[in-house]
Amino acid sequence: MSTLLEVKDITKIYPNQPKPGLDHVSFEVMQGEFLGIMGASGSGKTTLLNVLSTIDIPTSGSIRMGGKKIQELSQTQAADFRKNNLGFIFQEYFLLDSLTVQENIAVPLTLLHESAKTIDKKVMELAELFRIASQLKKYPSELSGGQRQRVAAARAMVKRPPLIFADEPTGALDSHTGREVLGLLQQLHKQGHTVVLITHDNSIAVQADRIIRLEDGQVV
Predict the structure, then answer these.
(1) pLDDT at res. 172
(2) How far apart are CA 219 and CA 45, in angstroms?
(3) Alpha carbon 175 to chain centroid distance?
């Protein structure tokens, strides 16, 4: 496997905080890997996700993807980078209540100005894969938690991004639905997507091929 993402000696220092949010963190994410990043609350998981996804900028160190130092991108370039390369699945779903399921899944393709015919085809393919084809005309408020997370997963992969971040994706779900969502992540992985799963739960992290553990902003 080739290297997809290279994190080298990343440090993130926040003003007026006694310890760095990240302290000389280094690792690689391989193409097609299912990587777990695990740590307790306050260990640096969220800070790491923010710098990996260009939402925040590290104080020092480098993050490379596709040969680019992504922390050196301008705000516009970073937004384009996220749009073209990253998919996100969050604990809180972040679906748009005013849009139907079909429209929610289609959002990334709409931003990429895909044709209506292409959008409809791709949305239906994923709706069938995630068993939500019968829900496409409904709104998020009409769905169960598990169905909403399926919609979020479909939206994350509809543009076939090279890298998918799943941030505590089962945190708001019961155990049965949580297992379903982990099954979705395994599906994404089997389809060739690189998945980075961020969690505090060891029973969830063990689903990954490899686990990186964070403690006080350091890889331990």
Answers:
(1) 66
(2) 10
(3) 21
